[in-house]
Amino acid sequence: MNKVYNNRAWFLILPMLMLVAFSAIIPLMTVVNYSVQDVFDANTRFFTGTEWFEVMLNDPALQAALLRQFAFSFTILAIEVPLGIGIALLMPKRGWQASAVLILITLPLLIPWNVVGSIWQLFTRGDIGLMGVGIRELGYAYNITRNPADAWATIILMDVWHWTPLIALLCYSGLRSIPDAYYQAARIDRASKWAVFRYIQLPKLTNVLVIGVLLRFMHSFMIYAEPFVLTGGGPGSSTTFLSQSLTTMAIGQQDLGPSAAFSLIYFLIILLVCWVFYTAIMNSQKDNTTQGGA
Amino acid sequence: MTSSVPTTPESVRKQAAEAAALRRKRARNVTTRWRRRTLLGLYLVFVMLPIYWLLNLSFQTNSEILGSFSFWPQNFTVANYARIFTDANWYMGYVNSLAYVLMNMLISISVALPAAYAFSRFRFIGDKHLFFWLLTNLMAPPAVFLLPYFQLYYSVGLFDTHIAVALAHCLFNIPLAIWILEGFMSSVPKEVDETAYIDGYSFPRFFVTIFLPMIRSGIGVTLFFLFMFSWVELLLSRTLTATNAQPIASIMTRTSTASGIDWGTLAAAGVLTIIPGIVVVYFVRNHIAKGFALGRT
């Protein structure tokens, strides 16, 4: 759509801008302010420059948390995206079954995040949980408070349970927008199922998958409440992700300077990765369209 | 001609082969359909099992939960629910949560509507940068903003009020609302606006009486997302409240970290947090397929 050049549009933006500025710019400036100072009390503070940033970047505990965070985010993306596409292909297209399946699949998305943690805690406990007891009956000493591998597997399973619906629903809406004529043409050409998926369905899904992958990456990188309730970051610190390290430092220990520096680094990493994702996907899309045109 | 009576041996063979191929194809279609249903059914079981378990535990007493393992409540009890509905500490949590979620939905949608219209219809100085900046707010981890929010709202005297949480959630909900609404608004042809102006409509009258009804499914979907992200958030709502505006999620974490956990009440409280979500998703079930693509399919 060709848009009109008109700077009066700023008046329409203004109310929104004032609100978001109040809840984004002022706090962000506070963080920047703390990150370059050493604060003792309300009146005593020293300028430290980039010292906190150096301390934070060299902290082994935080480096470990960062690596865990990346491992977690990429694992869940690798599982949830193909699974979500698969579920979307399986979902019924019309009738009451379609509505029923939609509502059931959406359910996990609407549960408060710490309740998701509680649900999985109740589900996986070795004494009262269905899954915990079930696995133990099978002869494996499943214990998420003792065994880091179990804790990891459970957190990943929980995230797959919680967020695959988002990808599935995005893909479902993408599939619904494909006109029937495409499928008829494919049938006339005797196209195989794989060819239909690869050349008709997948290209239509690219748009929604960009949104899905971005949202999933962002949210998995900020994950806090679910592992906090389920494992408390343990056993040891094997499931402590970035948000939890930051919260412990900022609220628990009240280390204003270091935690502010850490916040900024954290925020910048998310921005950078999202930007890389976004441009990479956009560029590959552009290549596809030019190849299709040639 | 396949329908004519076969006369030569080849045509008999050919017809038989065709009929067999058709039968095979039908049989294959039936098998594929059943395989699809089974796979989807398995996934739905995976989705429902943890929720079922929560429901199961919520109807048991603590002694039954800890004492015996059963797939359904042996001594069905609603005592856990009764405790929540009679104790003000518990049920006020739901009231508080709903209060700030509704406030946030109202604030977010009312400032996001004009802004999204501006982004979808006009070019102006800094529009692309502004849009990207808004999206960066969507990416901001709440943990980063915890401490400054606490200090900011404390210093302006809003700490432990519903409006503080509602404003804090605007950080990610307003950009999200603008992003979704912009997609829906861009699918309305510009000629609609132009015709309305020629017919003598003023901008506010056109916007409220013509434009908003045209994108009402988009508004519904946006409200659904605003509800969802405000309802499920824990970190900010827990930090910005103490007693008067404490959300249910935060009350639940305090119970679950205490020694000697009250499993039954925890499960019942969890079940009750799912119900508002079911109500909301029931209202938007027909628009959700389009809306989840944020109007961009």
TrEMBL record, chain A:
Which keywords does the record carry? Membrane, Transmembrane, Transmembrane helix, Transport
The residue ranges crossing the membrane are 12-36, 70-90, 102-123, 151-175, 196-218, 260-281
Provide one Gene Ontology biological process annotation: transmembrane transport
InterPro entries (UniProt xref) = MetI-like, MetI-like_sf, Sugar_ABC_transporter
Q: CDD domains attached here?
A: TM_PBP2
Q: Which terms in the GO cellular component ontology are assigned?
A: plasma membrane
Q: How does it sit in the membrane?
A: Multi-pass membrane protein
- Residues annotated as domain ABC transmembrane type-1: 66-277
> Where is the protein localized?
Cell membrane
Q: What is its main location?
A: membrane
Q: Name one Pfam family in it.
A: BPD_transp_1
According to the record, the signal peptide region is: none
Q: According to its UniProt record, which protein family does this protein belong to?
A: Belongs to the binding-protein-dependent transport system permease family.
Q: What is this protein called?
A: Sugar ABC transporter permease
Task: Tell me which species this is from.
Answer: Billgrantia desiderata
UniProtKB/TrEMBL annotation, chain B:
Q: Into which family does the record put it?
A: Belongs to the binding-protein-dependent transport system permease family. MalFG subfamily.
Q: Which Gene3D superfamilies match?
A: MetI-like
Where is it located?
Cell membrane
Q: Which CDD domains match?
A: TM_PBP2
Q: Specify whether Membrane is a keyword of the entry.
A: yes
Q: How does it sit in the membrane?
A: Multi-pass membrane protein
Q: Which GO terms describe its cellular component?
A: plasma membrane
Q: Which residues form a coiled coil?
A: none
Supply the alphabetized keyword list.
Answer: Cell membrane, Membrane, Transmembrane, Transmembrane helix, Transport
Q: Name one Pfam family in it.
A: BPD_transp_1
Q: What's the name of the protein?
A: Carbohydrate ABC transporter permease
The organism encoding this protein is Billgrantia desiderata
